[in-house]
Amino acid sequence: MLPESSVLIAVMSRTRDMERARDDHWYRIPERSAPKFFPPEYVAFYLTKAFATDAFSIRWYAQVRGHELVTRRDLLPDEADHPRADQRYYKLQLGKLVELPHPIPSRSLRRITFVLTNGKRLNEAWEINDLFLGPREHDLLWRALKEARLQAERNYILREANAVYRVDFAIECREGKLGVICGEPPAMLPRTIRERLLCFTLAQIDGSPQKCVEAIMAAAVQLGGPDLKPQAL
42-47 and 6-12 as β-strands: parallel, antiparallel, unpaired? Predict the structure, then answer.
């Protein structure tokens, strides 16, 4: 795998699907939810709770050697009566599963959908948040947060006050989550949400990521302080 190779992080929720990837060398993605960045050169698998001690981590990846669009019925003829039997899926033809040098865990046991990364990040990541690609300023702030030992989640979905919105960073505080957006906030957010949201321009981050971290820490204190309890590995 080259450093610039495209890698799709995909969710593996059933042990039987992992067996198919390992033994039959294919993996399925519903056409309706397939990511825009498709097809990738490689696919890596984020394991869910069905995988017991391996859950909430990435341990395996495979090269994508081709793909075709077929119905679920064609893929899984033994489940012909399934409610989604006639829906279409991308069938990715895979090479041999390769084990990473070390697992890449989610420290907060978070749920993810599809994530696009590259070979360099996959080989260098020590946790899920190290995989996300973004503008240079996002990476600057991410590194500054790590240096300050402020635990954060990248590209996070927050659900509060009947609103669902994405933030670039989320910090767990004792009285709730603090959201950080690099740029303008979403329109029409309730006031209670805006009180827990910080926004920085890319110029502010580029000029002094440390000052942004200081502002984040001050806002976290207003929410009872950052939650520094050990996170799951």
Answer: parallel
Chain center to CA of 158: 14
Going by their DSSP bridges, the two strands 26-30 and 57-71 should be labelled as unpaired
Query: Which helix (H) or strand (E) covers residue 214, if one does?
Result: helix 209-222
In total, the chain counts a number of residues equal to 233
Q: How far apart are CA 108 and CA 92, in angstroms?
A: 29
Q: What is the DSSP letter of 148?
A: T
pLDDT of 233 reads: 46
Q: In whole angstroms, give the CA distance from residue 166 to residue 41.
A: 27
Measured in whole angstroms, the distance separating CA 90 from the mean position of its chain's CA atoms is: 21
Closest CA to 233 of 141, 159, 128: 128
Nearest C-alpha neighbor of 55 from the set 128, 157, 142, 131: 128
> CATH class for domain 136-222?
alpha beta
> Whole-angstrom Cα distance, residue 71 to residue 78?
13
Q: Which CATH code is given to the segment(s) 6-125?
A: 2.30.130.30
pLDDT in tens, 155-180: 998 877 677 888 999 999 998 889 99
Other Cβ atoms less than 10 A from the Cβ of 116: the count is 16
pTM, 2 dp: 0.84
Question: 68-97: per-residue pLDDT in tens?
Answer: 999 999 988 888 888 888 999 999 999 999
Q: Where in the chain is the domain with CATH 2.30.130.30?
A: 6-125
Q: CATH 3.40.960 spans which residues of the chain?
A: 136-222
Helical (H) or strand (E) element with 157: strand 153-160
